[in-house]
Specification:
The protein is built from 14 helices and two strands; from the N terminus they run αααααββααααααααα. It is mainly alpha-helical. The chain has one domain.
Amino acid sequence: MLYLLAEWLNFEGIFNLVRYQTFRAGATLMTALVIGLLIGPRFIDMLRVRQGKGQPIREDGPQSHLAKRGTPTMGGLMILISLTLSVMIWMDLRNPFIWACLAVTLGFGIIGFLDDYDKVTKASHKGVSARVRLFLEFAVAGAASYIVVSQINTFVYVPFVNDFGLELGWFYYLFAAVVIVGAGNAVNLTDGLDGLATMPVIIAAGTFAIIAYLVGRVDYSEYLGIPHVAGAGELAIFCAAIMGAGLAFLWFNAPPAAVFMGDTGSLALGGALGAIAVATHHEIVLGIVGGLFVFEALSVIIQVFWFKRTGKRVFRMAPIHHHFEQLGWSESKVVIRFWIVAIILAMMGLATLKLR
């Protein structure tokens, strides 16, 4: 909104700053952070009053989690509000990538909200059936993929290799949808401890803010040997909004959490990262940067597959963060060590930009 206003004023005076994506990214981060911090206390009070008993806690989970009963969920709504408002203020409203990513974020947020609402009203951890959720997720991801792919080619670029990509043709639409849905559910599975998913999402968003900015510039993308995507630089602003909204939420989600983001937040943020990865042609790099989320999802897949075949468990409990809790690690130790892993993986993901 402000970008179009500044453009109408020919970027004169102080409005010249709005011309630069780096300035708008920083402004977006601060805007989302301030909005999140301002609405947080009253929003949490509202959720606590409306939900009563809060998010249902599984009886078969770690016993230390039973003390969290009564903590409200759906805190992801705070993230979505601050993220959406800040992006609408600072983005170039004509950019299709922003609209596609925003559609995934809000679409997945609505799906997650329906799941959270079902859990809270029925006092059950089951929520909406997996089949219904996946159908809705693929519908949203498919629509967003169509918007994104209409602006880019259908190549999948391989990290560490200069200007090498695999042409998937129409199959790329399915590939893009799988990336988005997979990222959404991987982050959703990671969100099991206070602050565990929030900080890695912030780290991944910061990494992709850099990637989006570089991909969006012809000079940098040519120098680094990475695919150039015209207009993708605006996604740095979207990533900054995720970071600001995430930091504001983390203020209230820090142990002991005053609120959980629920599927409303985790599904939305994961889907957003997937959409950004597709739009910047760094889908495989997302698997590196978001390796923590991948590992969490794989631990569940391995556990279910092996238990059905042998009746035995590979991990004491899945997702993998619960396994370490069962080994005697405190919740804070699991969270901080997983944050460290997320930082290392982000550095590895950034290394793919130069090691080609």
